[in-house]
Please model this.
Amino acid sequence: NAGVTQTPKFQVLKTGQSMTLQCAQDMNHEYMSWYRQDPGMGLRLIHYSVGAGITDQGEVPNGYNVSRSTTEDFPLRLLSAAPSQTSVYFCASSPGTDLSYEQYFGPGTRLTVT
Amino acid sequence: GIQVEQSPPDLILQEGANSTLRCNFSDSVNNLQWFHQNPWGQLINLFYIPSGTKQNGRLSATTVATERYSLLYISSSQTTDSGVYFCAVAYNTDKLIFGTGTRLQVFP
Model:
């Protein structure tokens, strides 16, 4: 199994541009989530999904959209990038439809918005 | 929402020393996990431990849910243990809340 994969690894955007961060898992996990990690801080939840067709907001959802059309994929869209969205983004997945299991993280995407 | 505090924020050790990292949380939890973020940024799940004690090699963890804390023990530390250790909790929600971490540096 490849586990949780994320693309791209690095990205530089100009303010106002849009882009999609890709996340995929091959473990048939129902629960998937996106976090951002800013310097010196823990991870903050952006959006999550408990199954295909179901998404919900986390702690810091503004400026981001998600969709879950398949169990495997959970892309994160930045609608109009802002410098405040410069961060490292992690995707995670876990079995089940709640948080009763351990989470598996992808390698992260380092995003810089100028 | 639940508040998560980790201590100490920074820890410097010589190889071979033991250490204890603490995670306090403000409310009941039914999910508590410990993660290690290595110097390359990869997050690895160490323990899923909403209560009780678990051991995995040189690492062990104990959660006392009634007193709202969890401890991560690292014995005979090695340089490869360096990185940031995060505690994350949830209670009857689908949202995992992370602490701000303990940064561990182990020197040879």
Notes: The mean pLDDT of chain B is 94.
